[in-house]
Amino acid sequence: MCLAIPARIVELEGDRAVVDTMGNQFKAKTTLLPHTKLGDIVLVHAGFAIQVIEEEEAKKTWQLIAEIDEFSDTQNRVSG
Amino acid sequence: MLERIYKAQQLMDAACKTLGRQINIMEVCGTHTVAIFRNGIRTTLPKAIKLLSGPGCPVCVTDQGYIDIVLDLAQRDDCIIATYGDMIRVPGSNGSLETKRSAADVRVMLSSTDALQLAKDNPDKTVVFVAVGFETTAPATAVVIKEAAEEKRENFCILSGHKLVVPAMRALLAEKNDKIDAFLCPGHVSVIIGYGAFNEIVNDFSRPCVVAGFEPMQIIEGLAEICRQLSQGKAELKSIYTAAVTEEGNTTAQQLIAECFEPADGCWRGLGRIKKSTLKLKDKFSRFDALKRFNITETPVEDTTGCRCGEVLCGLIDPPQCALFGSACVPETPVGPCMVSSEGACAAWFKYGRKKQR
To answer: What is the pTM of this model?
Structure first.
């Protein structure tokens, strides 16, 4: 439950942001990161950005998520 | 990459040889538990290294009494229950939020802000937000409490089930399981509290504490660092999750928690009552406390199902040692919370092969 997902801030107004993770966009708040700015990549947990991270680090996580999705798809095909 | 794995293996082998006994390393984070199983990390470790899944999943450590209060509130016609999806299937003494759903208004939220919005959209009902989670999640609750106070939103309240990781680690070592040799500390909790928060475990209990991220290599190197310390007879604090974790953590989030909450004694499944281990709303926000709003007194509830989640959470048994595991208790019809949550130790054992893992 404490997992945070890396996402890029693509819109920002006050502390209300729209973030993008692997093409999926959703709303997030930046209240916990007052100095964050448009284009930053942040870790988002339960709708809140909790930390700014480097793009390279985010890419590693995105890659992992993609692999898990791929793996789940394969599993579903095998079982279904 | 291969070189790093080889080096990690060398450190682990050295520790096994030097100590000449089983080495018990506990992870205190449900996301670590899942990552360890999914990547088959247990199967790659030397036999003498035993990984224990500790009280790191907020759903798993939430005690039955809390769930029963949520279920009671769900029965009320004037309430809407807003909850993170993780909580919906956790069984209380009589059913779960999922089984009550036909008769109750239960909404699954991705964020605390959605729960507050729900209150705005339903002025004639009181929205009760089931506020569970460790320090990673608590700031999100604090933000909406402040917002609700500013807006004078009277039809919103929370049932705080927020818990603090470090007091639980202390209680584990002091009272439940002194055989834990070291902790692999949680990554995203540490983003908020900072790795410095684990200093007291290192100093007071002489146990290595290593903060790691969630990639397989991070976990393996975290375990290797623990082994390095153990074989040298050291207990140190170290974070290898440098990409996201600082020593002081997210101070804005910490201040928000401190502004809205104060540490209070509270019940954990498996660990019992732990001093100053839960977060209670401060007096100035007490009108948003569901316990006060509905005049509820918390009463300890005895679990009579034979479920041994408590012992699993303390690292005293592995899930297959519970008689219910895999027979009466499976992910589709869970008896205990560690089988409900996808991050629970029992669910992970069940899903990723009961025989192959150690």
So the answer is: 0.93
